[in-house]
């Protein structure tokens, strides 16, 4: 069935606005996003733009939602293109994450940089769906081949009663399917991976620019080796 002309025009205009907003963020940073400037760049009035995005928050929400899904798509595409053995697929996923971040710095900053003043993510979770999708891919690859029993016996000696209780209370759509020790291992692993990417994407490791990719790859390999030391053999 053919999409009505009005819907096609609206979809095309929405796409133009999102692209223009992305260009504006690339030039001025996420905090510099201006509906008036975006509208002016498209030759339209702010009032006309409001027909598509009723507020700055609505436009920011759409940009964040799309960026999370694009990042998740990039990670999955890297995995789909590899013939790496199961044990090394997390390294491939991490490299897909890094590549997207350094090639899309302004969008990565929108996701993980300083929170935008006065912006509140909507309660319906649109901005978190992509993040959860991304997390599920990374969890799947990090713990590939591990049973629930192995994950429950993961070696994380500093896991307090309070931390176990908090992890047990995570909502079902989060990481509740993982036992508390595995949650701790994953968050630590993700923090290591993400921290290195942030340092590079935001220019803090430019002094080692020629070897950043190699350092990241070896760091991720070491991370996976350490994780496997923490997960006991299947009984």
Structural description of this entry:
Helix content is 66%, strand content 0%. The protein has two domains: 1-54, Orthogonal Bundle (Arc Repressor Mutant, subunit A); 65-230, Tetracycline Repressor, domain 2, CATH 1.10.357.10. The protein contains eleven helices and no strands.
Helix content: 55-70%
CATH fold-level topology of the largest domain: Tetracycline Repressor, domain 2
How many separate domains make up the residues?
Answer: 2
The amount of beta strand, in percent, is: under 5%
How many beta-strand segments? 0
Chain-averaged pLDDT:
91
What is the tally of helical segments?
Answer: 11
Q: Which features characterize this protein?
A:
235 residues, mainly alpha, Arc Repressor Mutant, subunit A, Tetracycline Repressor, domain 2, 11 helices, 66% helix
Question: Would you spell out the secondary-structure blueprint of this structure?
Answer:
Layout: H1 5-28, H2 35-41, H3 46-49, H4 56-80, H5 89-103, H6 105-112, H7 126-142, H8 148-152, H9 161-168, H10 180-201, H11 212-230
Helix pairs in contact: 1-2, 1-6, 4-5, 4-6, 4-7, 5-7, 5-10, 5-11, 9-10, 10-11
